[in-house]
Amino acid sequence: MNTSTLWTVVGVIAAVVIAWILVSVLGSLLWFVAKLAIVAVVAVIVFFALRAVFSGSRS
Q1: What residues in the chain have per-residue pLDDT under 70?
Q2: From its phi and psi, is residue 54 left (phi > 0), alpha (psi between -120 and 50) or beta?
């Protein structure tokens, strides 16, 4: 095994490790953004429901 082959193997291993970390971080970030969007939608629905309940009781 010559030096070029060794560096190729090390490069492939490093690329796989870096890709694994990036995919993990991006997956976590995307899941966080999705949860944030779901919370925002539910909060808007609850806000309008509460506003309708309290404004209807005043009239």
Answers
A1: 57-59
A2: alpha
